[in-house]
């Protein structure tokens, strides 16, 4: 196959130059080697491609046909190589991103819209999902999720920390009272999210005192709606409820109580991490997300993680 490509390339250069000696110089070959490649190609195809005389070379009908088609193929191959090499240095092409529905609508969607404006050669496609999504099977370049999942062959980059807050609707707090200490939580109802939130409540227990678990769900958005409707106290990430707190739909409880932050991470294959569109997007998102809440960002780390999108 390598000899076949070399023969074809030599013929195209000869056809372009209409001279064996000029083609040989452009190819960096001797005149004899260039002539030998042409003879081998003609022997393999079984037809003469070039007419030779003492002054110049001309293409036969078969030579013109082969030049046109092989020339286009070579040009497309060269364009493909340039495009691939460009992807390592210039942000271009389609960037496919997947994340959770709520985060996609509230935070990531506007950020990626801004990123696309800054990089007109990049076409951004954002998908949101309620289910875990495989980057490889889904053909995504990036998955943006919360909570570092278990290890795998994917690379994980920590983009920012998303602080958590305990909150409830003013109507609920007017009815049940506003907790002044952790012990007061025993008199209240808890809205639990079944994604490891039982671990969160360990941080707010005092002598095994915690809110009574009255409602639970695996849907973080439903938990937020329940809280706004006055069903109880919920622990949510700050970005999830920032607008609700600002609008007065929710009210923070025990703001001085330390709660573990929820890391925002990007998952991608090692190969995708070498492309400019992914590298640039990761830098952009890290800068924007860390600046949003003026939270001290943990040092970004790259390590293996899973092919799943966490909630």
From TrEMBL:
Residues 11-60 form the HTH lysR-type domain. Keywords: DNA-binding, Transcription, Transcription regulation. One of its GO terms (molecular function) is DNA binding. PROSITE patterns: HTH_LYSR (PS50931). Belongs to the LysR transcriptional regulatory family. This is HTH lysR-type domain-containing protein.
